[in-house]
């Protein structure tokens, strides 16, 4: 396979993509035992086109998704999801050496999971939005009261796009995620698109500590992007 001239810089995305993963993947990269959260409220922020909320609600777990793009017309939203799927697959295929393929078995397996997530999300979205489990919201300001959710999950956004958002945005967004949680926040991954650790992680941990927030970096049983096998927990 031909390798992109930018291969040493990691995956090259030209936008923040509307993309999603399945519940089975969430349980791995968030080190999540859903049996521990029965009867609790979970927020997925920003959720993208993930099927976590659809699947969790089918299991009887009260889960809510929020994303900036949930203010779009449904047809426009789904079209963006399909276009972003093609964009990500194309760019991942250019830099296969940045990924561990064991879980997916290769690019086709990766595509299968992404299509499955989008299918489950799109099938649930219309009725789910009416039921109040898909809410338009944009970090770093969320439309929820303090400690509205027991657990807050934030995957594949904050540190992944660290080249597109400044430190203040990251800090304020994480403080906001913490504000709306009553037990803990989990953020994955700690790496950017270049597979390198977020360069201001030490500053972030120090600033969170200074306002009394307990943090923990946890190794998880998931490493699709090489080196991305840790998540950040914020604990009340």
Summarize the helices and strands and which ones pair or pack.
Elements: H1 23-29, E1 41-44, H2 52-58, E2 62-67, H3 74-94, H4 107-130, E3 134-136, E4 149-155, H5 167-179, E5 181-188, H6 201-210, E6 214-219, E7 230-235
Parallel strand pairs: 1-2, 1-4, 2-3, 4-5
Antiparallel strand pairs: 5-7, 6-7
Helix pairs in contact: 2-4, 3-4
The shape, in one word, is globular
Mean pLDDT across every amino acid position: 94
Helix-residue proportion: 25-40%
Number of helices: 6
Number of E-state strands: 7
Give the topology string: H per helix, E per strand.
Answer: HEHEHHEEHEHEE
Strand order of the largest sheet: 3-2-1-4-5-7-6
Report strand %: 15-25%
Rg value: 17 Å
Structural class: alpha/beta
List keywords for this structure.
236 residues, alpha/beta, 6 helices, 17% strand
Can you walk through the features of this model?
The protein has a 7-stranded mixed beta sheet with strand order 3-2-1-4-5-7-6, sandwiched between helices. The protein contains 6 helices and 7 strands; from the N terminus they run αβαβααββαβαββ. It has helices spanning 23-29, 52-58, 74-94, 107-130, 167-179, 201-210; strands at 41-44, 62-67, 134-136, 149-155, 181-188, 214-219, 230-235. Helix 2 (52-58) crosses helix 4 (107-130) and helix 3 (74-94) runs antiparallel to helix 4 (107-130). With 236 residues, it is α/β, with parallel strands linked by helices.
């Amino acid at each position: 396979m031909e390798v992109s001239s930018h291969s040493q810089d990691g995956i090259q995305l030209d936008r923040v993509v509307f993309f999603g993963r399945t519940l089975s993947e969430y349980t791995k990269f968030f080190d999540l035992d859903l049996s521990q959260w029965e009867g609790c409220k979970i927020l997925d922020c920003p959720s993208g086109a993930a099927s976590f909320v659809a699947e969790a609600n089918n299991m009887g777990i009260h889960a809510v998704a929020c994303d900036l793009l949930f203010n779009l017309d449904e047809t426009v939203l789904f079209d963006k999801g399909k276009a972003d799927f093609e964009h990500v697959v194309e760019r991942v295929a250019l830099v296969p050496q940045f990924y561990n393929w064991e879980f997916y078995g290769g690019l086709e397996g990766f595509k299968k999971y992404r299509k499955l997530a989008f299918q489950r999300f799109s099938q649930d979205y219309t009725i789910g939005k009416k039921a109040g489990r898909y809410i338009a919201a944009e970090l770093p300001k969320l439309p929820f009261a303090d400690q509205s959710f027991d657990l807050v999950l934030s995957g594949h956004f904050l540190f992944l796009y660290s080249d597109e958002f400044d430190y203040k945005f990251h800090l304020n967004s994480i403080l906001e995620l913490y504000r709306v949680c009553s037990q803990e926040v989990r953020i994955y991954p700690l790496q950017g698109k270049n597979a390198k650790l977020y360069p201001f992680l030490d500053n972030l941990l120090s600033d969170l500590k200074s306002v009394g927030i307990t943090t923990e970096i946890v190794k998880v049983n998931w490493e699709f992007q090489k080196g991305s096998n840790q998540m950040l927990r914020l604990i009340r």
